[in-house]
């Protein structure tokens, strides 16, 4: 019975996909869990793991400023995930874009896997662990530099040019989202003829509020569990994002 229902929903999704030419995908942590990257809010997520301080506190700007040693201990252990590869969802979305069907990916993830799969027009609402910069002179540093700097006395990475503290290009709690990124995401979403929402519980604001800029009539919402926004969708599929996107004929 469940298999029949899944096939029926995929058939509905296929029809919507075939009839659309300006698709936008809005995704969250569930897109990357199938690559082995933990999410934040599930039973095994980062927010439910024991640490010296609550994770929500550690990844705040005030904590970064006052206790950078502890911030970087957590950051290296929990947020830098090496040797991960794009999964089915990332690859399918990249192929959709290459075929001219998908106009943009709007992601809350900071892992860079959409670009690794080949997606070009990606709006990273919360930044990326792959980019880091000196807070004093703006010099850029890659993820390997952050890893290697753990051997320093305090474990805090400092600029080799001016000695300034280096900050990951990720949006911490108490920080605003990048306005240029927001503007691009809003423009893409408002101009879409199909909005696919996947792997997100839609509880993190202001990012989750961006879907309200969609002006079309067709929203496909894919998430393993129910969300408070299920009622907004034309089609809701409670399954893994990889399984659903992998079942499409693109």
Can you walk me through this structure?
The chain has nine helices and nine strands. By secondary structure, the protein is of the alpha/beta class. It folds into two domains: 154 residues, TPP-binding domain (Rossmann fold, 3-Layer(aba) Sandwich), CATH 3.40.50; 84 residues, 2-Layer Sandwich (SIR2/SIRT2 'Small Domain'), CATH 3.30.1600. The strands form two sheets. It has a six-stranded parallel sheet with strand order 3-2-1-7-8-9, sandwiched between helices. The longest helix has 17 residues. 36% of the residues are buried. The model has no long low-confidence stretch (mean pLDDT 92).
CATH class of the largest domain equals Alpha Beta
| Terminus-to-terminus distance | 26 Å
Strand order of the largest sheet: 3-2-1-7-8-9
Hey, roughly how much beta strand do the residues contain?
15-25%
**Biggest sheet, open or closed, and with what strands and sense?**
6 strands, parallel
Oligomer class: single chain
Overall 3D geometry? elongated
Global mean pLDDT? 92
Rg over CA atoms? 19 Å
Contiguous uncertain segments of 5+ residues: none
CATH architecture classification of the largest domain: 3-Layer(aba) Sandwich
Tally of contiguous helical segments: 9
Order of helices and strands: HEHHHHEHEEEHEHEEEH
What's this model, at a glance?
One of its GO terms (molecular function) is zinc ion binding. The chain has 250 residues and is α/β, with parallel strands linked by helices. Helix content is 32%, strand content 16%.
């Amino acid at each position: 019975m469940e298999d029949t229902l899944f096939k029926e929903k995929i058939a509905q999704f296929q029809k919507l996909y075939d009839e659309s030419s300006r698709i936008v995908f809005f995704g969250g942590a569930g897109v990357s869990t199938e690559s082995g990257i933990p999410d934040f809010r599930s039973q095994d997520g980062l927010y439910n793991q024991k640490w010296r301080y609550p994770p929500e506190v550690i990844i705040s700007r005030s904590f970064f400023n006052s206790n950078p040693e502890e911030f970087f201990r957590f950051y290296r252990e929990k947020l830098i995930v090496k040797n991960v590869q794009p999964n089915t969802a990332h690859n399918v979305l990249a192929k959709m874009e290459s075929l001219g069907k998908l106009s943009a990916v709007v992601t809350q993830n900071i892992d860079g896997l959409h670009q690794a799969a080949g997606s070009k027009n990606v709006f990273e609402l919360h930044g990326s662990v792959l980019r880091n910069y000196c807070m004093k002179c703006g010099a850029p540093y890659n993820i390997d530099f952050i890893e290697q700097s753990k051997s320093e006395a305090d474990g805090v990475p400092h600029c080799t040019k001016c000695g300034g503290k280096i900050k990951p290009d990720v949006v911490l709690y108490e920080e605003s989202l990048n306005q240029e990124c927001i503007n691009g995401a809003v423009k893409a979403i408002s101009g879409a003829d199909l909005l696919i929402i996947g792997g997100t519980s839609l509880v993190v604001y202001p990012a989750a509020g961006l879907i309200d800029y969609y002006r079309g009539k067709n929203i496909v919402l894919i998430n393993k569990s129910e969300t408070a926004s299920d009622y907004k969708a034309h089609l809701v599929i409670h399954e893994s994002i990889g399984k659903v996107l992998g079942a499409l004929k693109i």
